Amino acid sequence: VQLVESGGDSVQAGGSLRLSCAASGLAYSSGYCMGWFRQAPGKEREGVAAITFDGTTTYGDSVKGRFTISQDNAKNTLYLQMNSLKPDDTALYSCVAYESGWYVGSGECAGRASYSIGYWGQGTQVTVSS
Q1: Which is the most buried residue in 60, 82, 110, 125, by most CB within 10 A?
Q2: pLDDT by residue (tens digit) across 57-95?
Q3: Does the structure show a pLDDT above 80 at 28?
Q4: Distance in angstroms (rounded) separating the CA atoms of residues 77 and 5
């Protein structure tokens, strides 16, 4: 599985961005979850949003009502629409995918067992200035 993010940029507070994560090799026929995490310098990695194979979504508290996660399985692409951006949203945003042994909650798609294998992209930088 290979994940490639794009769409990061520098924007003013209040602006919008749409991130994309192109996936190849993911077994869409099986149950899976995909999600977005972010990490700012000096801060822990934070779950932003997650979506399951059946379209169930979950968001972190800090982005609820502003960000929307979606997927286009025909294009093998995951999206994150980010509106009303704030300086606190500045971070490296990475997408993740699990084909098995996962759970979703509070904006996280993560592994729930030692055998769970998570696939990660290289990240795309979002910078929001005030």
Answers
A1: 82
A2: 999 999 999 999 999 988 899 999 999 999 999 999 999
A3: no
A4: 9
Those residues with Cβ within 8 angstroms of residue 100's Cβ, 6 or more apart along the chain or in another chain: 30, 31, 32, 116, 117
Instruction: Give the C-alpha separation, 43 to 34, whole Å.
Output: 22
**109 φ/ψ angles, rounded to the nearest 5 degrees:** -115, 115
* Residue 101 or 64, more confident: 64
Q: How far is CA 35 from CA 14, 32, 45, 113, in A?
A: 23, 10, 13, 17
Q: What tokens does 12 get?
A: 């003013």
Contact (CB, 8 A) for 95 and 21: yes
Give me the pLDDT at residue 11, please.
98
Residue with tokens 């209040």: 14
